[in-house]
């Protein structure tokens, strides 16, 4: 891989992916919404184009290159908080992802990669579940987008990979996901509260996730969908208690203080066999090492 386009380039995952691409001598065209968007996390040697998602088709004229290896579509509105339950916003994301695939084909890109979420697995069976979880619409929208892109990219004759992510942590993650929330509460001297946390999880370090995304773009992939994980999932409370132990003796974790949300996870969802087989991906360090690095970095800034 010598050249790549990345939408959502100034986002949390986009920023780290671009660092990984540059480290491997990949030329990057970074797509950012507008000139009011923050770009201070992006390296200086990146070509930036300002394009709103609702006019993504203008890239066909703005990008002169026709030798782009991979189009990474990471841009997605409403990944946090109440926006996850905004069906209008989430439906637009599905449209923009499909529009981006059409643009990738017109630009003669060799591969189109879009990112998903582990909550898609719950969305697959949503009609049989008696739940009202806030993020169910987000998961349904991701699952729908995955299905749409599978059909669309086949019709376009565009090689396509859906990269399914799960609970990314580390670096400058302030998204409020489970690790971000936990560390913020601990840093402020509070006790983070959870359910019994007996579900299986796979918490993925951002540097490893970026490496996996790079390898999916670089290698000749055989599957249209890969789960990006550490390969060593654990029960959630084991992760949380590890964080408590590493953070220090004064840290408290409130297990069982919140009601269960009714969502059930399956350990099989976190299988990385195909990812390792087709890309050679392996994680660099253990969760303990990565969370210690994350804690050290957060102690230098106020979150």
UniProtKB/TrEMBL annotation:
State which residue ranges cross the membrane: none
What range(s) does the NAD-dependent epimerase/dehydratase domain occupy?
5-220
Cross-referenced Pfam families = Epimerase
Q: Tell me the InterPro entries matching this sequence.
A: Epimerase_deHydtase, NAD(P)-bd_dom_sf
Top-level taxon? Bacteria
Q: Which family does it belong to?
A: Belongs to the NAD(P)-dependent epimerase/dehydratase family.
Q: What is this protein called?
A: UDP-glucose 4-epimerase
Species this chain originates from: Gottfriedia solisilvae
């Amino acid at each position: 891989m010598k050249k790549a386009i990345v939408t959502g380039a100034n986002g949390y995952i986009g920023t780290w992916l671009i660092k990984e691409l540059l480290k491997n001598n990949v030329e990057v065209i970074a797509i950012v919404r507008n000139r009011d968007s923050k770009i201070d996390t992006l390296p200086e040697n990146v070509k930036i184009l300002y394009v709103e998602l609702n006019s993504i088709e203008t890239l066909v004229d703005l990008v002169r290159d026709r030798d782009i290896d991979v189009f990474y579509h990471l841009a997605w509105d409403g990944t946090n908080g109440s926006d996850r339950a905004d069906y209008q916003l989430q439906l637009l994301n599905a449209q923009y992802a499909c529009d981006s695939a059409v643009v990738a084909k017109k630009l003669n890109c060799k591969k189109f990669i879009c990112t998903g979420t582990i909550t898609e697995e719950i969305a697959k069976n949503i009609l049989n579940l008696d739940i009202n979880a806030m993020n169910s619409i987000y998961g349904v929208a991701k699952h729908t987008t995955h299905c749409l892109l599978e059909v669309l990219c086949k019709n376009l004759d565009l090689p396509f990979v859906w990269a399914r992510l799960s609970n990314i942590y580390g670096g400058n993650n302030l998204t409020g996901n489970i690790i971000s929330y936990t560390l913020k509460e601990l840093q402020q001297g509070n006790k983070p509260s959870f359910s019994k946390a007996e579900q299986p999880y796979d918490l993925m370090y951002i540097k490893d996730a970026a490496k996996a995304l790079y390898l999916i773009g670089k290698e000749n992939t055989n599957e249209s969908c890969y789960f990006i994980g550490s390969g060593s999932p654990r029960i959630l409370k084991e992760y949380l208690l590890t964080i408590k132990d590493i953070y220090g003796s004064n840290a408290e974790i409130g297990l069982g203080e919140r009601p269960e949300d009714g969502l059930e996870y399956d350990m099989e969802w976190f299988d990385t066999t195909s990812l390792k087989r087709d890309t050679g991906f392996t994680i660099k360090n253990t969760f303990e090492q990565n969370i210690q690095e994350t804690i050290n970095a957060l102690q230098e800034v106020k979150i």
